Description:
Helix 1 crosses helix 3 and helix 4 crosses helix 6 (114-130). 67% of the residues lie in helices and 4% in strands. It has two domains: 3-64, Orthogonal Bundle (Arc Repressor Mutant, subunit A), CATH 1.10.10; 69-202, GntR ligand-binding domain-like (Four Helix Bundle (Hemerythrin (Met), subunit A)), CATH 1.20.120.530. It contains ten helices and two strands, in the order H-H-H-E-E-H-H-H-H-H-H-H. By secondary structure, the protein is mainly alpha-helical. The two termini are 30 Å apart. This is GntR DNA-binding transcription regulator.
Amino acid sequence: xxxxxxxxxxxxxxxxxxxxxxxxxxxxxxxxxxxxxxxxxxxxxxxxxxxxxxxxxxxxxxxxxxxxxxxxxxxxxxxxxxxxxxxxxxxxxxxxxxxxxxxxxxxxxxxxxxxxxxxxxxxxxxxxxxxxxxxxxxxxxxxxxxxxxxxxxxxxxxxxxxxxxxxxxxxxxxxxxxxxxxxxxxxxxxxxxxxxxxxxxxxxxxxxxxxx
Length: 212
């Protein structure tokens, strides 16, 4: 397995919520699990450190990065530009798929599965960017979503159901798309992302401290 594949595997694991901010990675165990050499794993670690997903601390090891408030704002700003454009002009938009993710998120919300809500919402946003047909944008979105998962894990410690209020907005987006109103759907999506970003100062507690 090449280091690029290992990098993608670890990034997907972070996006899935398998790791938590500040968690130390066991290099030997992870290399064995992925069936790669430690040199290959270290190459992947270097790439993920450069992407801001990992942090190497001298004499201590490699840790999952902990997001800052400024990091979170930047994630939302990037998404506010990228996702509405993909929703508006994407040539591979699958409205039925988006509707399925929203339905699954609604189900998770009903049974109190906040982790499941976060997963389905990530699937929703990933599918929007995938509509662009660009592998470059897909890779960038995977990186952003991995960072977003770390942010959601942190914010969930102080605010329950952080994503729940937005599910109704996503349902509205799907309904607009079903009616062929892509411009209106893109506007709702951008407004939702921007409002979330602008509320971070209130939502993200001032006493948050990075774990590493």
